[in-house]
Structure formats: structure tokens, C-alpha cells
Amino acid sequence: MERIQQMIHDGDYFVVHAPRQMGKTTLLENMLFELESTNPNQIGVLLNFEIYRGVEAPRFYGDLCNKLKFQLVQRLHKLGPTEKTQGIISLTPATDRIGFENL
User: Fold this and answer.
1) How far apart are CA 76 and CA 79, in angstroms?
2) If 0-12 CB within 10 Å is exposed, 13-18 middle and 19+ buried, where does residue 72 land?
3) What angle do CA 7, 98, 9 make, to 5 degrees?
4) Per-residue CA distances from 100 to 39, 62, 91, 92 (Å)
5) Residues 97, 61: contact at Cβ < 8 Å?
6) pTM surpassing 0.85?
7) What is the pLDDT of residues 78-92, one digit of tens each?
């Protein structure tokens, strides 16, 4: 977990690859909890892309945007409701990759 946190701090990315039922999700959830509890300026978002296999692009982007917004709003509410929270809630979901990039 320390190595992953250092990578996040350095702006790097990482991949957790292991067989089923090896604790990948638990590791990431614990890491996000610790990351957010030690640094309130960071917001962790945990997404599972496996559910999108075979989903058409507009639905994929719309659902992905909604999940991102939900997690961001949840985190911002923990820090205290702000104008940023309302701004995120009012964002229109994207329907393609350019709209997602703009979001």
C-alpha cells in the first residue's frame, strides 16, 4: 500500500492485477480510505469497468459520468457542502469520449 500511495503522490498510475478473490477491491478501498483520511485535498474514485463490456458508447459514458459525480459529491459532502458540490451535481453527463474529456 505504501508503494501505491507513493506512486499516487508522484502522479504515476498503477494496475492491480491478480486472480479473482485475492483482495484487489479491498486493497483499493482501504487505500482510498487512508489516502482521503490523511490528505483532505485528494479524492479517490473507485470504478469497475468490467460491467461495461458490450455496452454502447452513449450509455457507457453517461453511466461512467454519473458514477464519477456520485463519488465526488459523496466525498465533498464529507468535507463539508460547498459550491463545488452543486457545480458537480449540475454537470450534464457526457455521451461520447470528447464530452467525457470536457467533463
Assistant:
1) 5
2) middle
3) 10
4) 27, 9, 11, 10
5) yes
6) no
7) 777 666 666 666 777
